[in-house]
Amino acid sequence: MVVKDFTAVLSSRAQLREPSPIRDIMNKLFSLPEGADVLSLAGGVPNPVLFPFSGIDVKLTNGTTLKIEGDALRKSLNYGKSGGDAGLISWWQSFIQSSMDVSFKGDIERRCLVTNGSEQGNYMVLNCLLDPGDSIMIPRPSYPPFVLKATTLGAEIIEIPEDTKSGGIDARKLASLLDTWPSYKPKPKVLLVCPTGSNPSGTSIPEEARREIYQLACQHDFVIIEDDPYYLLNFAPVKETTFLSMDTEGRVVRLDSLSKILCPGLRLGFLTAPKQLGDILELHMQEIMLHPCAIAQTIALSYFQELGPEEFRSVGREVASYYEQQRDVTLAALDKHFTHLGTWTKPKAGMFIWLTLDGFEDTTSLFDAALENGVAFLTGSSCQTSKTSPNLRISYSLLPPDQIEMAVARLRKTVEDAKEKISLKYDRICKFENGMVNEKCCKKATFKYENVCKKLKSTAEDNNQYMTPVDMDGIKGVTLTGPVTLKVE
């Protein structure tokens, strides 16, 4: 077995990173056994006797109160270890070991770091691996910050379409891309995926496709960043095998988040990586933040210790069940209001539905009109490199069921109003004669939607023409399928 060596794939900035002398000393002091006879004159650490806090009570919804006081409080109010609290890391490692059958020792030694949400972990890994001009592969569509981070780092973004039938990134198209990659050009370093309940599409990569993708990673030597914040929000009783659990070469970096199970305000996530890369990522943490928020880590650890691993899994199932019900309400509303207007995904996890509108090339212009109608959505163009998209993302996480129905109805009105108001200017008219298309020039023709499929009434010299759109001014890609009125200017 060959274990991935990250030396050759580190970015130039990552290769320059050195340990912070102060952080290096402090981490050693934090690692000393309790009661060690060491009198420290090393760190500029504030004296906790001056802190104005004597205790923190965190009341849970089940009636339990987590009390943080004494040494635990003093520790959480002061500086901590760069990679995160050892107790919290130990708990999370045990949890994913039992949940995913992952080892942190043996042939592949791994590290777990506590991050300021998986968002920070995602950026740190990209910063550590990508130089300007390097190629990164992402799904199309993708979570908008994926695109923004890669763009900021100067990377070339390669978008891999999702498989519209089975869901998730299309392993066949990924294989085709890599098999035909130009020999003169370095292959992509990284594949960044959100494999479960993907944001924004709501799709999940089937297990067979995950195994195919991992084999492609081994064959073509790229790193998989498995950004999986919706892992515990899987509606199926049996969760798909993670990329981390099938990693036999140390080429998977996994990101987990507590934002969807506990709360996003704690800003806590976990980064699991091969130790070689994890050590370098910790240097990045020393540069930008010293260490993760100690109070947030103490609250999370107290909560985990109160529940235990199995009860925490039960909490995950309860949260997933809630979102599954929200999904069902939203799908029913779409069946009621959008059957004639588009198609959409049917998520097996997560919080999102990806809606494709018929007859639109871009949904950006709909947003302001939607706000006027009292509804909001995420435009599809936000989730890809292309500036136009006929898609939009619906999130069913926040609204109660009756308001979900109302929101979808308002969205329908917005779309239907837009179709009524669309004015298309064509430079040419196409006339069908005996099945053949003849082009007839016209200076300016303004077409307006009315309803479905009748003959074109024309003030041009020829009557009973059918037309197909040839050139549009402003709203490209809107296919005219209904009866229209023609005004020749």
Computed CA radius of gyration, to the nearest angstrom: 27 Å
Percentage of β-strand residues: 15-25%
Largest sheet: 7 strands, mixed
Roughly how many Å apart are the termini?
73 Å
Helix share of residues?
A: 25-40%
Q: Please tally the β strands and state the result.
A: 16
State the secondary-structure class: alpha/beta
Spatial order of strands in the largest sheet: 3-9-8-7-6-4-5
Write down the secondary-structure element order: HHEEHHEHEHEHEHEEEHHHEEHEEHEEE
Uncertain segments: 423-489
Q: What is the quaternary state of this protein?
A: single chain
Mean pLDDT: 85
Question: Count of helical segments?
Answer: 13
Rough outline: globular
Key structural traits:
489 residues, alpha/beta, seven-stranded mixed β-sheet, four-stranded antiparallel β-sheet, 16 strands, 34% helix, globular, disordered C terminus
Give a verbal description of the structure.
This protein has 489 residues and is α/β, with parallel strands linked by helices. It contains 13 helices and 16 strands. The strands form four sheets. Strands 3-9-8-7-6-4-5 form a seven-stranded mixed beta sheet, sandwiched between helices. Strands 10-11-13-12 form a four-stranded antiparallel beta sheet, with no helix packed on it. A hairpin with a 2-residue loop joins β14 (423-433) and β15. α3 crosses α10 (294-307). The protein is globular and about 80 Å long.
